[in-house]
Fold these 2 entries.
Entry 1:
Amino acid sequence: MNLTHADILEAWGTHLAQGRRRSPHTVRAYVATAARLLDEHPVTDWPTLARFDTAVLREQLASRRADGLSNVSAARELSALKGFLAFARSQAGEIDASLPRMRGPRIKKGLPRPITPDEAVNLAVAVDEDAAEPWIGARDRAVLLLLYGAGLRIAEALSLKGSALPLGEVLQVTGKGGKQRVVPILPIVRDGVADYVAKSPWGAPRDEPLFRGAKGGPLSQGMVQKAVARARVSLGLPPTATPHALRHSFATHLLGAGADLRSLQELLGHASLGSTQIYTKVDAAVLLDVYRNAHPREQA
């Protein structure tokens, strides 16, 4: 049975969105990667696509690298291509067939850049004070408190609905891939969210987004990022002081206070312990900075 490229891409996108529960952004990126492969190597059936080998992948990536693709993007593209070919093999009934073996480019993984506890608190206060309206300030402060006080990703915080209220001592969060976890909620976080709800002109209907934009629609990540950018300038913080840095800081400060990696993995919602282990390096880096800045010999 002959298929059009549109048929193949639609099936791939549906598999990613419904079968793998990927985000819309990931679906768009992975479908675009598959589309580029089909443009270079036109096929009209799953069995032919399933037989693509390492040479095809290498040629495709070489073409993309010639266009200036970075190591990080090339690694992501290779992952998408392998996933696409695995899907093609399942569609062709070749579930047990081995995929082409090809290593991606080496990526030097940079360490997250945490900020100090005082800087985290000051950032939350600054976005509150700099806001155009009191309820907007209370909103942005509440979001940042969830990032630093509970270790939420910004997308997780903004996906909360009114049904999460009133906040108790713990909160069930839905993270990447629909994975759920339970995080503790500190009194300062509960109070910050309650203050926002009390000031918000939109209320908190159970089935509606908890955090709203100025016109009542769902609050976007971009608006929070802009508020933080303004606040960090006023506080003299580096460009690395982003909303996501608050989550990094949450992890780093907990590890420094004695939290074990397994517990931290659960709190952060990491699928593997390897993702959490990077914070051991962060903590060591922070301690080294403290040593260099405070030790008498370093000041001599």
Note: The longest helix spans residues 273-294.
Entry 2:
Amino acid sequence: MRTSPSRRASVLLAAVSSLSLLTAACGDTDDSADDDGTTNAKNAEASPNAPTKTGLTVSFLPKQVNTPYFTVADDGGERAVEELGSTFKEVGTEQGSDTAGQVSRINALTEEKVDAIAVSALDPDALCDALKRAMAEGVKVVTYDSDTNPGCRYAFVSPASSEDIAVRQLALLGEQIGYKGDIAILSAARTATNQNAWIKSIKRELEDARYQDMRLVDVAYGDDEAKKSYREAEGLLEEHPDLKGIISPTTNGIKAAAKYLSQSQSKGDVKLTGLGAPNDMRPYIEDGTVDAFVLWDPAKLGELAGHAAVALASGQITGREGQMFLAGDMGWFKLGGDGVITLGDPTVFDAGNIDDYDF
């Protein structure tokens, strides 16, 4: 149980599309083996109607504790886990690039014999050995927000498809700069799975004809640290004086970049968008530093991860494509390829709606 009181996100973003309510059991048996010769548990039988186990211990391991985004996300996870009759535990590091810290905490949770771990991975490869050991010991592993390799977990709770998130950010910036000029990206850690997927999709989308007059000139990494992200934003403008816009697909990065731009001569001239939390970005929307940005409801993301973790531990799903589980009043969710569970479409925040949200 967390010692700090749970904070509740008081809003809902755009409604997640409800999936058809199916009760038929999914999951034919398949005794195929993974690379090390052990039976692939993802192909075991599962039933969405299996009783929900209670008294479980579900641990959340975010990329970084004590940040607004993950505080809200993990509060959502806590709410789901406790409503399902189990115990929630949050562990983590205060450094946004401490992969070794994530590994050590996974190992500790395995030793503690927790029932499930929900982790937002800082690195797609570095956590794999620790996560595979946890799975071999019977721990159900879910990733949320940022994935690891599919073979190192049972399911991934994704905010939306990587392509949709990337395309929306680029389109917003294109609209703001008239689809013309040099742009840059201010990312988090170099190894962050979600960041790299979005950057790859942005680069691919830039090949579309409507972006023919836009050019990506640089990608900087602030490691989700406020001071470093601030310095990296400053460095981008110093190195690229003709820069027209920045995409920062990370809540800590966009906040730091907005702070820098709001105090610089480039305020209003260099456009900034990306993924941000409304409460962080409200001052910069109000003072004209930022026109619009996007995000999903992190509380709902954490809540869905909590439901997925308990569903795995209860045998309602095993991580196989096509299986379904009920996530409380959020409705039924279906696992896609590689065990991906998608929350829904992101929401665009601007001066017209930002005051409707509080997280």
Note: The first strand starts at residue 57 and ends at 61.
